[in-house]
Amino acid sequence: MGFWDSLTGRRQEKAADLDSLFLVPSAAITLQTAIGLTPTGSGSVCYRAAGGAAFHQLQTEVVALLDDDDDSPDVAVTTDSFGFTWLTVTGEPDDTAGLCTDLHAVNTTLEAQGFGSGLLCSLVPFADPSGRRVGLVYLYKQGTFYPFAPTGPQQRDNLLEIQVRDTIAGELPVEKDLSRWLAVWDAPGL
Fold this sequence. Notes:
5 helices; PspAB-like; alpha+beta; 9 strands
């Protein structure tokens, strides 16, 4: 931050490091061995859909790219109650690397076509045999991850979230500001 920026109260936004998504497969192994959480095989990208034909065409092309053959994962586009769009990819639970590659492709395509300002987060859900679920949420504008563990309508398991944070802190850039650990209620896969 320069002197003029500090006087005027402006700050430079931290650039997203989408390559951090490629760290998730290693963190997935750690989560499985340390606390019994395994990937569910799904993942999603949340964004504010832009109006107009150009964005609609781009979204259609992204879905077609991900769903180009019989062996490709299932792709779905939904809108949540807040008006945000979720593009969800569902594949094999043991192919976290392929899932993260697909999520990276969605993010970079939207960013490259000028829609980066609408990207909000990416989500990779995990579950354990007892039914607990937690999602690793990648905040696009911060370039960091945080865990979100819903337990019911408008309830979350803060203890599990802290446990996951402590388990993956050495492998992923974790969001330190807890006020940014936003609830993503009704996110696909959770």
